[in-house]
Design a protein that fits this description.
74% of the residues lie in helices and 5% in strands. The chain is mainly α. It has 2 domains: 3-27 and 179-252, no CATH class; 34-172, Helix Hairpins, CATH 1.10.287.1700. The protein has a 4-stranded mixed beta sheet with strand order 2-1-4-3. It starts with 7 loop residues before the first helix and ends with a helix. The model has no long low-confidence stretch (mean pLDDT 94).
Length: 254
């Protein structure tokens, strides 16, 4: 490791980079857990259930109508055959003639009842069609909204992932510049101090704990190239400089 390349600002740059990495990772998680998408998917489930229930009822009624229609056709065919028999002149027995006539009349009466039932079922089928169409349109509408939102989320996630990759690459480069002993102290403090190991003294205040540094201590913090310890929170402390603001601006643009 070439410690000659080490600059105290690299610690600030490392911390700001790592904080940005965490923010980007959280941003990706939040995008993937979109509440709007969750609501749309819940709405889709409800609409799909409604559509399926309507469709099942529709199919059941249509199935019954088809059975009635088939029975009407079958009995109409029987009536036709009986009529042909009656007009064929081959029936010589009056009893047989009466039996055929009674059977035909019964079939016709039953067909009349079936036709009335079929009309009722056809009305029900017609009532279901607009409901089904509306439910299907609502389903397609929500599906399209979900697709558009997922496409938008994917694009945003990709953009943030690209920035996250760049930040991780920069972090790797920064790590190469920091001596092992300083890095060990940085990691130790980061673990103990809620993920923040480095602070900056600005206008006599610690920018992390927001406590005013006693004058007796602040007077000793004068060298911008030297690392100090915050007497209030115990973090690594460096003096504020324009370089820190430049680093912030640089990272914020990512």
């Amino acid at each position: 490791m070439n410690n000659v390349d080490f600059d105290l600002l690299d610690l600030v740059r490392l911390q700001l980079t790592e904080q940005s990495i965490i923010r980007k990772a959280n941003e990706i998680n939040n995008l993937k857990k979109s509440q709007k998408l969750l609501k749309l998917e819940t709405s889709l489930d409800e609409i799909s259930t409604e559509y399926n229930n309507l469709n099942n009822d529709y199919l059941q009624i249509e199935h019954e109508r088809k059975k009635v229609d088939d029975r009407i056709s079958l009995q109409s065919e029987k009536i036709k055959k009986i009529e042909e028999k009656l007009f064929s002149g081959t029936i010589t027995s009056s009893k047989e003639l009466v039996n055929y006539q009674e059977e035909m009349n019964a079939l016709k009466q039953n067909n009349d009842e079936l036709e009335n039932r079929e009309i009722e079922l056809m009305i029900k089928v017609d009532d279901f069609k607009p409901k089904l169409k509306h439910a299907e349109q609502e389903k397609e509408k929500v599906l399209q909204e979900i697709k558009l939102l997922k496409d938008d989320i994917s694009a945003k996630v990709k953009a943030v992932e690209d920035k996250l990759k760049l930040l991780k690459e920069r972090r790797s480069l920064i790590l190469k510049k920091i001596p092992k002993d300083i890095m060990a102290k940085y990691e130790e403090l980061r673990a103990k101090k809620s993920g923040v190991a480095v602070t900056v003294m600005k206008n006599g205040f610690c920018t992390v704990c927001n406590m005013e540094i006693p004058v007796s201590d602040a007077d000793k913090i004068r060298d911008p190239e030297k690392m100090y310890k915050c007497p209030m929170c115990g973090r690594m402390l460096v003096m504020h400089s324009s370089g820190i603001e430049e680093i912030k601006s640089e990272i914020e643009t990512l």
